[in-house]
Design goal:
The structure is a homodimer. With about 150 residues, the first copy, chain A, is of the alpha/beta class. Chain A has two domains: about 55 residues, 2,3-Dihydroxybiphenyl 1,2-Dioxygenase, domain 1 (Roll), CATH 3.10.180.10; about 60 residues, 2,3-Dihydroxybiphenyl 1,2-Dioxygenase, domain 1. Helix content of chain A is about 20%, strand content about 30%. Chain A contains three helices and eight strands, in the order E-H-E-E-H-E-E-H-E-E-E. Chain A has a four-stranded mixed sheet with strand order 5-8-7-6, with helices on one face. Chain A has a three-stranded mixed sheet with strand order 1-3-2. In chain A, strand 6 and strand 7 form a beta hairpin. At the A-B interface, strand 1, strand 2, strand 3, helix 2 and strand 4 of A face strand 1, strand 2, strand 3, helix 2 and strand 4 of B. Strand 5 of chain A pairs antiparallel with strand 1 of chain B.
């Protein structure tokens, strides 16, 4: 794991922040903070909301501002081509998390069901349509910190 | 932190997997594995590639199959509304990581530059257009494990 800034540098395998572009920051914050009950960090400021999810940070930011920061057009619609996954410790928790997301103002996209790979999962969309899979994987249990550590 | 499956359940604050839908799985794998040098997990199988990034897992999966798994249309174009961030320990590493991504077959979308919030950052797109910000944040250094832990 090196951070050497030479021409042949290989970046450390690292993902620190996932930023969701949102149409209405107050609505998005309410979904995650009040609805799901995920604590908002005091490091949040202005139009950026930070939520610590284990070792990674979820960030909420107005969609247009996010596109502008990346210097790309914010035009875009349909399937984003990215999904997030929230793994649970017990099979029955898949349906419970989907219900919690729905109660918080999300939408159940795929009800909890057995998956072809031997697990149990479903999907919800947050108020901006960002897709979260909720999954129970009996083959790779979460560690004590709630992290999924592959073999 | 509770996983109780009752009606008032609040899900644990947890993000375990980020899955990128890709047009060409071999090309995407080559970008991350050979280009960036990020080890592919032996837990990968069939048309799913897993890469452990600290406590979170990056997954690569054919875009159409990902949409089908979520039971949504795979139609979609333009800005996805989601960005990922890779934080670095030194300011000069922002440009170095962008160069490494470009050498690996990615595209520099925003060259390394000082940011209005006091850091230094840029963006690259992977071969499928997924946007990664590379950022140096002098206010919140990475911990020993490479994780960003907010105040």
């Amino acid at each position: 794991m090196t951070d050497r800034s030479d021409a042949t540098m290989k970046p450390a395998p690292r993902l620190n922040i996932v930023t969701l572009g949102v149409a209405d920051l107050a609505r998005a914050r309410a979904f995650y903070e009040d609805g799901l009950g995920w604590p908002v960090s005091p490091a949040s400021q202005g139009d950026i909301v930070f939520i610590q999810l284990g070792a990674v940070v979820l960030s909420l930011h107005p969609r247009a501002a996010l596109a502008a920061d990346a210097t790309v057009s914010d035009k875009g619609a349909g399937f984003a081509g990215i999904t997030l996954a929230h793994n649970v410790r017990d099979k029955a928790d898949v349906a419970a998390v989907l219900r919690a997301a729905e109660a918080a103002g999300g939408r159940i996209v795929k009800p909890a069901q057995d998956a072809h790979w031997g697990g149990h999962s479903g999907y919800f969309a947050d108020p901006d349509g960002h897709l979260w899979e909720v999954a129970w994987n009996p083959f790779i249990p979460l560690d004590a910190d709630g992290a999924l550590r592959l073999p």
